[in-house]
Specification:
The protein is α+β, with helices and mostly antiparallel strands and 476 residues long. The chain folds into three domains: 205 residues, no CATH class; 89 residues, D-Amino Acid Oxidase, Chain A, domain 2 (2-Layer Sandwich), CATH 3.30.9; 127 residues. The chain is 45% helix and 15% strand. The longest helix is centred in the C-terminal third of the chain and has 26 residues. The termini are far apart.
Length: 476
């Protein structure tokens, strides 16, 4: 039995499983997903490889999920299910549910005693998915063998099948989809497998099912993807020159992949941490260096945004669709503050928050500091304010992670001195003692930590000094 032939057979066998049935294109998607997960032979060169019983079992399991793209993942999850009570309590001594399917395909006695197999990939335990039930007859009695995820080791001990209750022990999800395969299904499938063995024929079709896979492999080759690759992906908001199509570029000693903006994705930069022999922070610094060069060349902006790492291939960065606060009853009653100082403080606060959320953390730190300077003129007066008010903030925020991280940054230096020398002076000047580098990922992390603490201090200052309410309906 070949994979392409099996897809057609499964399509026919599942025609009456619902009021609508799977199209050939959907089955092709399921089989492609299973090839990606190694559940079926992968590659055109293996197209004429005969399927084993385990392959056919995986193909059946790939029919269970509602979405075709999850077929490979689900086949992997279900293939590992183990019998409750161990092999002695299993169907024909099967060690896994895959083995049970393989027995049904080979053994006529097993098929004759069999009634139904039911599979689900719902959450059957906390963070644990998948379950199966085999209904069969033995010694004139109807019996049931249950299969659970391999992590449920306590259920594999002999005798555990006696008190196992699927309605109690396998119902973690409030709703559950199941798919069943009957005795007739396996009789017809086994007959097709036997016919394919007796009268061998070449795989159906011309191999077009591999075209998309091969095109993708060629794409990854051009982008420098290799076995063991692990990518960092970073979205970019920019107006610098960017390639129309994805492109592998060399930047100094590093290889970067640039992806263009689309309807659903932002421009992005991707770097293979493994191939470039860098950790995430070093890679982020390299990306920032690249954007700085581009900003200089085009005399325009280039802002590194959010991202993540870990994928074995470059993945486009989806546009952000951030949640925001709405109200059915919008109650608003505010006035422009009478005090010029209060107006300026709110303006600086808005600028600081905007900068903090858009990658300009140096400017954010500086503006939070400037808020405190509105009524504390000179270095000593400002330091004294931070000395007093950081102590108050620390006392009221015991166990706060931001405070703990900030104190770790300060080391042996007093926080009020650190804020002035290593935050305010460092970002406002570029002298021999002020070497803050906004491309350096370690420096960015340091300033973000400082900004979160200074943000809270600035809010406390505005509330205390100007009596500015943070209620939208205060009437002030």
């Amino acid at each position: 039995m070949y994979a392409k032939n099996l897809a057609r057979i499964l399509g026919l066998l599942c025609q009456n499983s619902d009021v609508s049935y799977s199209s050939p294109q959907e089955l092709d998607q399921r089989f492609e997903s299973m090839r990606r997960y190694g559940q079926l032979p992968r590659g055109r060169e293996r197209r004429e490889e005969k399927l084993s019983g385990q392959h056919i079992a995986a193909a059946l399991f790939g029919l269970v999920p509602m979405h075709p793209g999850w077929a490979g993942h689900v086949a992997t999850v279900l293939s590992g299910l183990r019998p409750v009570g161990g092999t002695a309590a299993s169907f024909f001594m099967a060690e896994t549910i895959s083995d049970a399917v393989a027995v049904l395909l080979k053994d006529k006695a097993a098929r004759d005693s069999f009634f139904r197999i039911t599979l689900t990939v719902a959450e059957t335990g906390v963070n644990s998915h998948g379950g199966a039930e085999v209904v069969y007859q033995r010694d004139g009695q109807k019996r049931r063998a249950y299969f659970v995820p391999k992590a449920a080791v306590s259920l594999f001990a002999p005798g555990r099948e006696v008190d196992f209750d699927p309605d109690r022990d396998r119902m973690n999800a409030p709703a559950m989809r199941e798919m069943s395969f009957t005795q007739e299904f396996f009789r017809r499938l086994a007959r097709e497998c036997d016919r394919a063995e007796r009268y061998p024929e070449p795989p159906e079709g011309g191999g077009s099912e591999y075209d998309a896979e091969e095109a993708e492999q060629e794409r990854y080759r051009k982008l420098g993807v290799r076995n063991g690759s692990r990518f960092l992906h970073v979205g970019v908001d920019n107006q610098v020159t960017w390639p129309k199509n994805e492109r592998l570029v060399t930047f100094d000693q590093y290889q970067l992949i640039l992806m263009p903006k689309t309807k659903d994705h932002v421009q992005s930069v991707h770097i293979d941490l493994t191939a470039n022999r860098v950790d995430e922070r070093t890679a982020m610094t390299v990306i920032n260096r690249f954007l700085s060069v581009m900003a200089w060349c085009d005399d325009n902006f280039a802002i590194a945004q959010y991202g993540w790492s870990g994928n074995p291939v470059p993945v486009p960065v989806t546009k952000q669709d951030l949640a925001f606060t709405t109200a059915h009853e919008y109650i608003f009653d505010r006035k422009i503050p009478n005090s010029e100082e209060a107006r300026r403080a709110l303006a600086l606060f808005r600028e600081a928050r905007n900068a903090q959320e858009n990658g300009f953390v140096s400017y954010s730190v500086l503006n939070y500091y400037k808020i405190i300077e509105i009524r504390n003129h000179g270095k000593e007066a400002t330091r004294k304010w931070f000395l007093t008010n950081f102590g108050v903030l620390q006392a009221s925020s015991k166990g706060d992670d931001d405070i703990s991280r900030f104190l770790a940054l300060c080391g042996n230096e007093p926080p009020h001195k650190y804020i002035h020398d290593s935050c305010r002076i460092a970002v406002a000047h570029a002298g021999k003692n002020s070497k803050s580098d906004p491309d350096d990922a370690n420096e960015i992390l340091r300033l973000h930590t400082a900004a979160r603490v200074m943000h809270r201090l600035a809010r406390n200052f505005i509330e205390a000094e100007f009596g500015t309410s943070d209620l939208m309906y205060s009437g002030d």
